[in-house]
Amino acid sequence: MPESPKPPALDLASVPPIYILPSHLDPEALHEQEDLVFRLGGSLTYDSQEARVFLGKIGQKKRAAFDLRARGVWTEEALLPEIDHQYPSRDNHDKGQPPHKKARTGWIERDVKRRDLKRRRDSRSSTSTEASTRSENHPPSPPPVVSWPNLKSHIVVLKLAWLESCINKGHIVHYKPYIIYSGKIIPKPAGETSPKALPDPTTYVKTTASGSSSSHHVPKPTTSILERAKADAAMHQSHPSTSATSHLHRRRFGDHAHSTSSHQAKHPPKLHRTTTSEFEDLANNPLPPLPDWATGRYAHYSCCRDTPMVTRNAAFIAQLTKIKESRLLTLDDIGVRAYSTSIASLSAYEHHIRHPDEITRLPGCNAKLAALWTEWYHSADTDGERSIATVRALDDDDDLRHLRLFWNIWGVGPDTARKFYFERGWRDLDDVVEFGWSGLTRVQQIGVKYYDEFLAKIPRAEVEGIAGVILRHARGVLGVGPAQHGGPQDVECVIVGGYRRGKTECGDVDVVLSHRDEEKTKDLVVDVVSSLEAEGWITHTLSLHTTTSDRGQATLPFRSTGHHHHGAGGFDSLDKALCVWQDPRFEQDSLAGLHPDEASPNPKSDEKKQDQKNPNVHRRVDIIISSWRTVGCAVLGWSGGTTFQRDIRQFVHKTKGLKFDSSGVRDRANGLVLDFESPRPKTQNALEAILKGQKPSPPPDLSRPGDQWDDGDTWQDRERRLMDGLGFGYRPPEKRCTG
């Protein structure tokens, strides 16, 4: 009985040019994947501009797009074109049908040659078995044919698991379930410089069909890497411009200075040269001891250490902040995160840095940061005069100056600012008003209208005055009388944000309102805003959210969509109102210096004032409502610096498997709401019970030794118990200034 024919071997010849992204792959694994694609007949390329299918060990769209930009491939996210058989597929080839007309590109010609060689080889090897194959009653069904869209102007990034799945099944599987990112190739935006990737420690040889023998010889994997390296070394001497690069290089803001030949040349890293005098100085004055927070298990979490508002190294940190801002305006999320971590670590360091070795031993700080400090320190004699060359270039960059102008518009983020400047060609606010006013959102229109006023800082006394007015109106709508002020029936008003961290001047005013009766906080934001509008304090209500009231004031579900954390833009799931505030008192009221609680303004009833323009500055005010059950979460979520808030969420996720936001705490494993704020015994067993979803009960006899009950029920007590229960410990808001 003749043997059954073997299934056809996996052939990647019909796949458009393939490029292996090196992210998260060590050199050996990268070479193995490249050799595998080559052995399977794939059109492997080391030219990212030529590739149309990218395989990578990544999982996010942003990272995929960033890796492409780092290799000079600029794209915008787009769906893949419909299948039009522009690319030759195996079914046309096997049937002897000529491929459709297509653009004459080098990689398509190489694919055709490679398939012709394979077809002739396969036809010779299959002649002897053709008769036996025909005699089979049930020949094996052919594998499904996968057609590729026209990728002449598009690219697709697939998970590396797609290649593994093809190998396991013995044929090309459909690519759609493995798509990470698909995009349309676009020209490099004006003013941008393609990121220069770091040199790859290994080298490659670009394989072509013409370089293959007639027998389609495949190099052995044990020797192919060395052979390619030797061949590539020779090729680099004669064609240095064709060397391939990999390894992600962090994207830099595209200033024009980098287009000069001096900046195009590769410079070795700047290393600190320790002189004899420095050695002697270190011997006589050794480095200060490393802080305890820098050596612990959770050293890299900024929520586990004190970070004051005023730091000993503020001048150097100010330079790093400018670099971080430039990364933000180039949409480099990875760079922003890295600099944010470094800045938070340096801000917590209690010593004045005098040697680069002090930096490299801090969490989140590396040799690159130490080199920047060395450059900064030796640039002048005083901190006020010192600077970094990169920062000076950023300060002088015209593109960055325009981007910052648009970014400072209320309601405009970095991505929108770049569209205003690079895509629409706007250069100032007059261009925005003249050419794009109708296309702005209402928030952006208000941001343009009061641009200069919103940039003006708010003194602490004025912040307190605004909060006093809000508290007065909250008491009014809830019917809280003077006799109840300061008692358990009173409204709690907490000024959060930069004010609570100790800033002398604030950019806006954030106020959290709460009440011990949960029924009174439901839809409270609507009544308070209406009362303030009626009295003339709020001129515009830009957004009014009743998200928490709509779900019965419950903690945000574990799986939710459409909401952003405070750390990711200032928003969360609590009831809130974003308002434009203006003091309606002017002339005699303002001159009298009356406190908002002492005055009872009603500008609408004052006909004389209606005819006059109010000269008082407009302010941005956020009114947030929280139920008493989770007021600690709300106050904590709106009081810390951005990095502090980010690290809280990461810390509780990694160490306890919890999800924290301003509406409460949930167990990620079962979605159970955990109450760390209510009064509880001062024992470890109490926390263990809470983690299991249990509510500790007070001991029967508090007079016995050891029976300690934490029964304070102010919002400060609830925030303290929350921070202790989450595991990183309480620290006052003045020590949460990570930036």
Please give a structural write-up:
- Helix content is 38%, strand content 10%.
- The strands form five sheets. A five-stranded mixed β-sheet has the order 1-2-4-5-3, sandwiched between helices. It has a five-stranded mixed β-sheet with strand order 7-9-12-11-10, sandwiched between helices.
- A hairpin with a 5-residue loop joins β14 and β15 (673-674).
- 34% of the residues are buried.
- It has 739 residues and is α+β, with helices and mostly antiparallel strands.
- The protein has 30 helices and 17 strands.
Condensed summary:
With 739 residues, the protein is α+β, with helices and mostly antiparallel strands.
Major β-sheet annotation: 5 strands, mixed
Radius of gyration: 32 Å
Overall number of structural domains: 5
Residue windows where pLDDT falls under 50 for at least 5 positions: 1-7, 85-113, 123-137, 196-226, 228-269, 560-571, 590-596
- Compute the number of helices: 30
Q: What's the overall geometry?
A: globular
Major beta sheet, strand line-up: 1-2-4-5-3
> Strand share of the residues?
5-15%
Average pLDDT for all residues: 79
Helix content: 25-40%
- The SS-based structural class is alpha+beta
For the termini, the CA-CA separation is 78 Å
- Total DSSP E strands: 17
Subcellular location: Nucleus
Pfam families: DNA_pol_B_palm, DNA_pol_B_thumb, DNA_pol_lambd_f, HHH_8
Domain BRCT: 151-180
Region (Disordered): 85-148, 192-274, 591-618, 692-716
